[in-house]
């Protein structure tokens, strides 16, 4: 797949503070990339740089060949800000038709889009009466207008209930399915774990990790946990033999580097009938995120 978004070695200074440090990031057509990082890591600044709303130095940013802020780039990008604001006195339909006119696309799609984002029933109500989730849905309908090459979504699910989140990711999947490159800034790790193709983590203005979840896990070499369910009478003995920690009931927990996993499993298998069950628990995204975002990698 070809890259729609290319960011090469971008810097940004705010006064004496460097808020973007040599950022490199690519997003291909149809790819969903999560942008993670603590508060103040630089995610929103990077999105603004892509939109051409803030000046940057260093290398270059290209949106399907266009420069940030150019008329060409603006036509290719759809942006959903974290707090999406609309005219309160317009109805959802009126607002979307207005956006369609501004985007130079026909208004015919609007009814179908409102239906798609679950707002058909509320389309003729004033936006002032919408809940936060309904406003996010309207924002997403706007993103879907005109089939953007690149969608930038800043915390798209903040404040949404689980069903709305699920619906929103289903729509994001469709967007990617039609070839849009999608960049999602998020704090919701479990969501992006399941719903994105690649994860980029920012720390103090720098992209410190950028890969698939599987490869990030492999590279971080975080310890894995092995959970042994022992027969009640054997639990203490097994804990001693494996040098594990005796937990509630008859459970014994071990922690080991990935390279020792098979050796540990062989030792457990050799313990015979005293072992009833074994689970191997890979590091969760929270642990990986902490590893990269707090600099434990160094
Ligand atoms: N308008 C501004 N003026 C001065 N400094 C700013 C401005 N906007 C952002 N910053 C600073 O730039 C850095 C990056 O902020 P940014 O908003 O990009 O982070 P973020 O990763 O989006 O954080 P969050 O998760 O809280 O939204 C921070 O140190 C922030 O204080």
Q: With helices defined by DSSP (H or I, 4 residues minimum), what is the helix count?
A: 11
Mean pLDDT: 90
Order of helices and strands: EEEHEHEHHHEHEHEEHEHEEHEH
What is the overall silhouette?
A: elongated
* Chain oligomer state: single chain
Number of domains: 2
Tell me the CATH architecture of the largest domain.
Answer: 3-Layer(aba) Sandwich
- CATH C-level class of the largest domain is Alpha Beta
Return the structural class.
Answer: alpha/beta
Strand order of the largest sheet: 5-6-7-3-8-9
The amount of helix comes to: 25-40%
Major sheet, described briefly?
6 strands, mixed
| Cα radius of gyration in angstroms | 24 Å
Percent range for β-strand residues: 25-35%
Question: Can you offer a commentary on this structure?
Answer:
- This protein is of the alpha/beta class.
- The protein has 2 domains: 3-218, 3-Layer(aba) Sandwich (Rossmann fold), CATH 3.40.50.300; 223-282, Alpha-Beta Plaits (2-Layer Sandwich).
- Helix content is 35%, strand content 29%.
- The chain contains 11 helices and 13 strands.
- The protein has helices at 43-51, 71-76, 92-103, 109-116, 132-144, 162-177, 189-195, 213-220, 235-242, 261-269, 285-293; strands at 3-14, 17-28, 32-37, 57-63, 77-80, 150-154, 181-185, 198-203, 206-211, 224-230, 245-246, 251-256, 275-281.
- The strands form 3 sheets. The protein has a 6-stranded mixed β-sheet, sandwiched between helices. A 4-stranded antiparallel β-sheet has the order 11-12-10-13, with helices on one face. Strands 2-1-4 form a 3-stranded antiparallel β-sheet, with helices on one face.
- Helix 5 (132-144) runs parallel beside helix 6 (162-177) and helix 8 crosses helix 11.
- The protein is elongated, with a radius of gyration of 24 Å.
- It binds adenosine-5'-triphosphate (ATP).
- Residues 14, 19, 37, 39-45 line the site of adenosine-5'-triphosphate.
- Pfam families: ABC_tran (PF00005).
């Amino acid at each position: 797949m070809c890259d729609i978004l290319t960011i090469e070695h971008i810097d940004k200074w705010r006064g004496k503070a460097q808020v973007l440090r040599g950022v490199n990031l690519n997003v291909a057509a149809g790819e969903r990339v999560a942008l993670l990082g603590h508060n103040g890591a630089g995610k929103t600044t990077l999105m603004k740089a892509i939109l051409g709303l803030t000046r940057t130095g260093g290398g270059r940013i290209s949106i399907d060949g266009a420069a940030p802020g150019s008329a060409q780039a603006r036509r290719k990008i759809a942006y959903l800000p974290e707090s999406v604001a609309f005219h309160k006195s317009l109805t959802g339909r009126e607002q979307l038709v207005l956006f369609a006119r501004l985007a130079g696309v026909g208004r015919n799609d609007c009814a179908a889009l409102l239906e798609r984002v679950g707002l058909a029933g509320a389309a003729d109500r004033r936006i002032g009466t919408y809940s936060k989730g309904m406003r996010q849905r309207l924002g997403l309908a706007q993103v879907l207008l005109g089939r953007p090459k690149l969608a930038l979504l800043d915390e798209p699910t903040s404040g949404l209930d689980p069903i709305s989140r699920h619906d929103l990711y289903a729509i994001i999947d469709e967007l990617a399915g039609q070839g849009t490159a999608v960049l999602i800034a998020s704090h919701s790790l479990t969501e992006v774990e399941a719903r994105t193709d690649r994860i980029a983590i920012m720390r103090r203005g720098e992209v410190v990790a950028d890969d698939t979840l599987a490869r990030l896990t492999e590279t971080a070499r975080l310890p894995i946990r092995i959970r042994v369910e022992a027969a009640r009478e054997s639990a203490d003995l097994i804990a001693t033999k494996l040098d594990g920690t005796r937990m509630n009931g008859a459970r014994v927990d071990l922690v080991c580097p990935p390279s020792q996993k098979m050796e540990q499993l062989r030792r457990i298998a050799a313990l015979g009938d005293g072992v009833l069950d074994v689970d191997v628990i890979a590091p969760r995204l929270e642990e990986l995120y902490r590893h990269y975002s707090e600099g434990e990698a160094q």
